[in-house]
Hints:
Layout: E1 5-9, H1 13-25, E2 29-33, H2 36-46, E3 50-54, H3 62-72, E4 78-82, H4 87-95, E5 100-103, H5 108-126, E6 134-136, E7 139-142, E8 147-150, E9 153-156, H6 159-170, E10 175-177, H7 178-186, H8 195-208, E11 218-221, E12 225-228
Parallel strand pairs: 1-2, 1-3, 3-4, 4-5
Antiparallel strand pairs: 6-7, 7-8, 8-9, 10-12, 11-12
Helix pairs in contact: 2-3, 4-8, 6-7, 6-8
Amino acid sequence: MRKEKILVVEDDAAILTGLVDLLRGEGYETAQAADGREALRLFAASRPSLVLLDIMIPEKSGYDVCREIRAKDARTPILMLTAKGQEADKVAGLELGADDYVVKPFGVAELLARVRALLRRGRRDLGAKNEAPIVFGEVSIEPRTYEGRRGKKTFTLTGLELKLLRRLIDHDGQVMERFDLLEAVWGMTYEGTTRTLDQHIARLRRKIESDPSAPRHILTVHGVGYRFRSRP
């Protein structure tokens, strides 16, 4: 079986070496880049299973790299490395299509857990080639291409956005608690705030709702979580 390859993008040589050694010790193949331009070149050349992406890198920032990858590839998971306490960095990365983030300094166990969770999600996405289109209200989505349409507007979902939407649809009309959604969609016992989930919900609403500020399909249940409603 082909080993999964992880593209590691980090300009600190010591951290880069440590991450590569760690991942190779866990059985992954790696490609590594110290700047944004090299990261995009290696992404196109090596087609990794996951990108581990630092934000503060030269040439092109992690934000630029994330944006350019997502413009061409909705599926490959992106795990961002952010500075401790920089909430704006986390939000910006998630807004651009990153799947999750790890805050520096991070523990080895936490990093590997998030890597494994995102890779499991990526493998499940590859097995969804024959899934039927998703249709509700004015929205139709083709899971095989990650492309959707709402009325005359077209959009593209990331792999994680599609999985989150599937989970909500599977529980149509039911209230889903935030941490239950995080564990079901991100594939691990999630520790920390629910900012990651809330940002992905916000991105989904901008794509599928005619008025994201007054959603008709993905409803907030304050203090609890979210409820999907297929027929508003």
